[in-house]
C-alpha cells in the first residue's frame, strides 16, 4: 500500500460517504478498513464508502464493463457489502464529474444491482457549489408475493405492518402516525417473518405530509439511522403509491412523490413502464489523503 491514499468526502441529502478513487482496484479495502475509515470519531466518518473502480478492473463488474466504465463498489459503514445505494450512485457520479472523467449529461454506472443510468444536470452556479441535481434511473421495484410480501416491524411496544420492497437491496416500509414513534433507532428494528429478509433489511418509517408528499426516517442495514437513504426513498414512494391505489405500470399513468428525509428532499417518479427515477443533490465537500500507516496501525491494534 502506498503511504498516502487519496479520498474525498461527499453527501447526498446528508447521506454521507467516504470516496476512495482506485481506478485499477489496487487498494485492499477489507471490511475492517472500511469500518475504520467510516468511524465518525477515530476515522473520516461516513454512512458508507464509495470505492471507485473501473469495471474492467473488478471481478464483480467485468461483465458490465462494455456498458459502464465505472463500478460503484459500495460498502456500508460497518464494512458490510450492499447491492445498491441510491444516494451513493449520485455522489459517485458527482465525483466522476469533478475528477474530469465525465461531464454534465448522461452516464452509466455499474453497481451490484446492475447498470444504472445517471443524468448530471447543468450546474446552477459558476463555482459548482450549487451544482445541478443528479438523477438516477433506479430500475423497477420488486414487491415479493406470498408470505414475505407483508411483514411486521417493531420498535419498543409499537408494531406496524410493513411493505416488503426490493430496490436491488431490501426494504421494509412502515406507515406510522408520528416519526417520533420510531424512537432513537440505536438498534435495528426487529421484523417478522425472519424469512423475509435473510440478509437483514433497511427499515423506513413514513408519515404523510400532503398529496403525493411524505416524510420518512430510516434505519439502514450496516449503518444505523442515517439522514437519508435513496433506495429507501424509492421504496417509500412505491409503497405509498400502492397504498394510494396508484400502479403506473398497470395503468400507464406515472406517479411522482416528494419524499422528505431528515437531510433534505428527494423527488421520485415511477414511470408508466415501472422504471423509477430519483432526483436530488449530490455534493463533494472535501478531499485529502489518508495516512496508510495510521490505517495499518489501527487495523493491527483492532
Ligand atoms: N444509503 C443507501 C443505501 C445503502 C445500502 C443499505 N444500507 C443496505 O445495506 O442495503 C441509499 O441511498 O440507497
UniProtKB/TrEMBL annotation:
Keyword Lyase: no
Origin: domain of life: Bacteria
Pathway: Amino-acid biosynthesis; L-lysine biosynthesis via DAP pathway; DL-2,6-diaminopimelate from LL-2,6-diaminopimelate: step 1/1
Positions of substrate binding: 15, 76, 86-87, 169, 202, 220-221, 230-231
Reaction equations catalysed: (2S,6S)-2,6-diaminopimelate = meso-2,6-diaminopimelate
Gene that encodes the chain: dapF
GO molecular function terms attached to this record: diaminopimelate epimerase activity
Family: Belongs to the diaminopimelate epimerase family.
Annotated positions for site Could be important to modulate the pK values of the two catalytic cysteine residues: 171, 220
UniProt-recorded name of the protein: Diaminopimelate epimerase
Keyword vocabulary terms for this entry: Amino-acid biosynthesis, Cytoplasm, Isomerase, Lysine biosynthesis
One Gene Ontology cellular component: cytosol
